[in-house]
Amino acid sequence: MFSGGAKQSIEILCRRLSTPIHSRYGYSTQAYRETIISEPKTTGTGLFVRKYSNDASPSDHMNLIKKLRERTSAPIKEVKSALVDCNWDLEAAQKELRKRGIVLASKKSSRTAAEGLLALAQNETKAAVIELNCETDFVARNEIFQYLASSLAKLALSAESSEQLSGTFPVGPHSLQDLKINFDHPKLNGERTVENAITEVAAMMGENIKLRRGFAMSMSKHGVMSTYLHTCPQPGLGRIAGILSLEVEDENASLDAVQRVGSELAMHVVAAKPLVLTKELVSSDAVQNEREILKSQAESSGRPQAAIEKMVEGRLRKYFEEVVLMEQKFIVNDTVNVKTLLNDLSKEVGSPVKIGNFLRVEVGEGLQRADAPEALAQAA
């Protein structure tokens, strides 16, 4: 039997236990009651007393926010909101963030994404390069963005059809977006489609992210596939890519010298910006247009017609040296052009060596950045 005072105290205690206690931190003892009540202990008076430990402290909340942010890289505001909505359940909040990511990414998809990286993957006979765009170079330096780009390049390399013997082929976003990749990164793991992975990373970064384009080059003859990446934050990533295939007629010829020259020529492609391989591949319209411009410039000098013709032909040769790879001066040794370089290489190898294909790709080429004067004028 309890005294009246004891009964009243017990009634007050029961009422307080059944009522959620809200604090300024937004949690209640009732929500955690099942997990934080310790085993009952008997006091000397015969009363059962339960001890409460305040597990849901502000520091616990901060730890949960930190863990979820480490897992997802989502903004702190979104992380906290998801945890609150999921009653501070870490796994449920992570799932909720992934759901929200689709909405957040779709809202950002109309923003200009002209920064980013090229990712390149290759084997002995193939090379593939993709361009993954974002809005700022800050995101381009993020490890998750770089991991995604590298994964997409490897997929583009493996996705190439075995029926394609040699040449350069586009690998468009539409040919990759429905393919699945098994990701293995602390913040991006498990199997998902390319489209879903890009959407998820866009939500993490808080920017518009797009797979803009891709190319693959393959070769079927004896030779080497050479690549070069400029402004390379880590192997396989960069802002400008040069890819070049060198084919050797004799299948038994050593490729050591060919590999050395191939690496230098891939770097040459990045630096010299050739448009075509040989003069024959320059369109007649382009030649005629250039000839008219040069002739007009020469006539303004007031020189005799014979001198004007010589000036035009001389400047036309200079034009070919600028746009035709075989006519360009070799950047490593400008006393020879690429044509002479290959002739010397053929003699060294003991078999004819020729360039099969070449490709130069640069991040953002052809895209108008959001901070460009023209874009700002249109926005105004």
From TrEMBL:
Span of domain Translation elongation factor EFTs/EF1B dimerisation: 127-365
Annotated GO CC locations: mitochondrion
BP-aspect Gene Ontology terms: mitochondrial translational elongation
InterPro entries: EF-Ts_dimer_sf, Transl_elong_EFTs/EF1B, Transl_elong_EFTs/EF1B_dimer, Transl_elong_Ts_CS, UBA-like_sf
Family: Belongs to the EF-Ts family.
Protein name: Elongation factor Ts, mitochondrial
HAMAP family membership: EF_Ts
Organism expressing this protein natively: Cynara cardunculus var. scolymus
Principal localisation: mitochondrion
Compartments where found: Mitochondrion
Keywords: Elongation factor, Mitochondrion, Protein biosynthesis, Transit peptide
Molecular function terms from GO: translation elongation factor activity
The keyword Lipid metabolism appears for this protein: no
CDD domains hit by this protein: UBA_EF-Ts
Role according to the record: Associates with the EF-Tu.GDP complex and induces the exchange of GDP to GTP. It remains bound to the aminoacyl-tRNA.EF-Tu.GTP complex up to the GTP hydrolysis stage on the ribosome.
